[in-house]
Amino acid sequence: MKILFGPYGSVLSSLGISSNALTVKRQGQLHGYRIAVELIARGYLNAGATMPTVNAFFLRTLLKEGFFELYKEMLSLNLEALLAALGDKNYGKIAICLGPANDCYQPLLAPDTAEAHLFAKRQYELCIEVLNRFGLSISDVVILHETIGTGREALGISQAAQSLNIPLIISFVVP
Q1: What distance in Å separates the CA atoms of residue 44 and residue 37, rounded to the nearest whole number?
Q2: Which of 91, 102, 121, 142 would be 160's cystine partner, CB 3.0–4.6 Å?
Q3: Which residues are CB-neighbours of 30 under 8 A, at least 6 positions away?
Q4: How far apart (Å, rounded) are the C-alpha atoms in residues 175 and 172?
Q5: Domain count of the chain?
Q6: Is position 17 within any domain?
């Protein structure tokens, strides 16, 4: 299986669009961002990707800063762009790529298990809300929680997923 995933941040920046959602919103770049994400998704599809992925990794900072509505708006833009790129093709499940609470390359900053559980559960609840807007459910997706730097954070994330019966894949950065 080839997963539709890649360097969204660097592609966005090469197009002159920030991967920082607050910057995108403040600079009125929402439309450009959405078009760029659709172009990126089409590129991966044209390259033979078989599992469409919504890259919401960069959106995690919105949750840390309490911007829940903007998180949902940006996740919706990403999902809308992906679905537009897919057109009428049925690829089965869609992956949603989420990131850790803090800087993934600094394990000392990782939250403890309880904090990670709360953060991930909030991410999942907001994802479910957005999926419902598009007539999708958690059974239509796989959550990719990537670049997790500690076992304690991975445990909290997996506990949150289990509490909501969410299919989950976790990748690690080994310190």
Answers
A1: 11
A2: 121
A3: 24, 73, 77
A4: 9
A5: 1
A6: yes
Per-residue confidence (pLDDT) for residue 159, from 0 to 100: 97
Q: For residue 129, which of 137, 120, 118, 121 has the smallest C-alpha distance? A: 137
DSSP code of residue 157: H
Residue 1 included in any domain? no
Is the dihedral angle over the CA atoms 104, 106, 108, 109 positive or is it negative?
negative
Q: CB–CB of 54/34 below 8 Å? A: no
Only one residue has tokens 């976790």, namely 170
Instruction: Note the pTM of the prediction, 2 decimals.
Output: 0.91
d(CA 150, CA 155): 9
Could you write out the DSSP letters of every residue in 122-153?
HHHHHHHHHHHHTT--GGGEEEEEEEE--HHH
Tokens coding 21: 């959602």
What CATH number has the domain bearing residue 58?
3.20.20.330
Q: Please indicate, yes or no, if residue 141 is contained in any of the structural domains.
A: yes
In a domain, 43, yes or no: yes
The one-letter amino acid at 139: S
Lowest mean pLDDT among 1-10, 23-32, 151-160: 1-10
SS3 100: coil
Contact by Cβ (8 Å): 142, 133 = no
Phi, psi of 114 (to 5 degrees): -65, -45
Cα four-point dihedral sign 148, 152, 154, 159: negative
